[in-house]
Design brief:
The protein is mostly helical. Helix content is 55%, strand content 7%. The protein contains 15 helices and five strands. The strands form two sheets. It has a three-stranded parallel beta sheet. Strand 1, helix 1 and strand 2 form a beta-alpha-beta unit. The longest helix is centred in the C-terminal third of the chain and has 29 residues. The chain is elongated and about 85 Å long. The two termini are 32 Å apart. The structure holds tryptophan (TRP). The site of tryptophan (TRP) has 14 residues, from strand 1, helix 9 and strand 4. Tryptophan binds next to strand 1, helix 9 and strand 4.
Length: 336
Amino acid sequence: MKNKRILTGDRPTGKMHIGHYFGSLKNRVKMQEEYETYIEIADVQALTDNFNNPEKVRKNIKEIALDYLSVGINPEKATIFIQSMIPEIAELTVFYSNLVTIARLERNPTVKTEIAQKKELFGESVTYGFLGYPVSQAADITAFKGELVPAGEDQMPLIEQCREIVRKFNSIYGEILKEPEIVLSETKRIKGLDGNEKMGKSLGNAIYLSDSPEEITKKVMGAVTDPNRIKKDDLGNPDICMVAYYHNLFTSKEECKAVCEECKAGKRGCVACKKQLAQNIIDTLEPIREKRTYYEERPELVDKILIEGTNKARQIAKETMEEVKKAMKLDYFKEQ
Ligand code: TRP
């Protein structure tokens, strides 16, 4: 019997990059050994800000599944499922929506930031669905009685809101739901190759888990280094160099030290330094790429993993739904 149950997930809106790897995937691979793990591909949530682009969400279901499997999420240990195929989540969302005020949703810092970033999509007024996605995320977690949610810092306000919903539900209808706890990764957000605080598709500064060695090399060669260092023998400052920043993630401690010392002494050129980094990234991602190829060549196996995972997850959601309906006095026509 594994002890606690994990529930986590991602919006299928793009391929995953090394920021996701260090920020969450690596941690999940570790945690699946110890906990009963459920991972949701949150297509319904993805539609809240991509309702006008259903093709994008559909296409990325497979990409995310391949990303999961390639990094070592093991379908024997972790259950991967698709949100829209579990109608109980949608049903719970409706019930929970009575337990949350609009003002509270508008105050959610994550929602607030995202709305500000999506002015182009939402114009003057945000949709009901987007404003309410924390309610739907609370349903994602509680449908499975998730106790631990490994996620990034940006998810904290969503988990807090989920906990409030759980407390409110339990205080009115009885102790049915579990209050989840967030589990933050050791590595916080990874900066982009251009030095931007965030790595992301729209910023064009990301290395994807599926990138080929050629793509990785090309991207690393374009990374931002110390702008004051023009010639090789200029003394470099690794503290403001993205190549040094990435060496810290992909290069051994001793090698890192040597790289930085030679850079500071003007003894190591940026080109050599970048080539070495590119090679280290390529080597680190090699087993991930290999696993990806294995699954890419077996699309029917990936389908099977998703179908079986979703069936298993749905069973649990159905059980929760029964308890919830009973507690809410919605269990009509049941024998006593
Ligand atoms: N909101 C999460 C993100 O944008 C995705 C997500 C959906 C999620 N449902 C979840 C994360 C449940 C943790 C638990 O990355």
